[in-house]
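Module 6 notes. Inverse folding takes a fixed backbone as the condition and produces residue identities as the prediction. Think of it as a translation problem where the source language is geometry and the target language is the twenty amino acids. Below is one complete input and output pair. Work through it position by position during the lab.
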């Protein structure tokens, strides 16, 4: 199987900049960024730099949640690294790579609220906008892509994560 490019480096960079601007102009200004490992780390780095260019430079606290093994969604979302007390009273920006069924973002939102987060907003690279999704992203670079995607931090069983673009697997 070979990856076929869906979104180029240039398209991603343009959308990340646009999303950062939207977040900066939005009604909820985040005090804390929370990338969900592992798939969000590339997007989070780019988004946080873009937010800093918009005048919002915020600290980061990671969550490590796992909902996939290879291409298969697991039952439930496993918490590998939970939140800490730094969430208390903060507006939190959850950052993830792809939103399929929404279970990972829903679990992350639940966890940070349990740890005292005030308001929680979310940004993803791709929101598949599945009709069965239990959660939707507040901000998405791209929407309605139904393919299994890799690259830009997202992987297939550990492969293709470092691709600088987003691709589907043929």
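Target side of the pair, the amino acids:
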């Amino acid at each position: 199987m070979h990856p076929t490019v869906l979104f180029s480096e240039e398209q991603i960079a343009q959308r990340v900049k646009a999303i950062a601007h939207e977040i900066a102009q939005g009604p909820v200004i985040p005090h804390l960024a929370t990338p969900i490992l592992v798939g969000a780390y590339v997007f989070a780095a780019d988004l946080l730099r873009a937010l800093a260019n918009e005048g919002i430079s915020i600290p980061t606290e990671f969550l490590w949640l796992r909902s996939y093994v290879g291409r298969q969604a697991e039952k439930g979302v496993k918490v590998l690294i939970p939140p800490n007390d730094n969430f208390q009273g903060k507006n939190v920006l959850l950052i993830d790579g792809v939103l399929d069924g929404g279970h990972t973002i829903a679990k992350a939102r639940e966890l940070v609220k349990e740890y005292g987060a005030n308001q929680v907003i979310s940004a993803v690279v791709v929101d598949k906008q599945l009709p069965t999704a239990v959660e939707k992203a507040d901000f998405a670079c791209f929407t309605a892509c139904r393919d299994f995607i890799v690259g830009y931090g997202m992987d297939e069983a550990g492969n293709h994560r470092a691709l600088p673009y987003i691709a589907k697997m043929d």
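Reference fact for the lab report: The radius of gyration is 15 Å.
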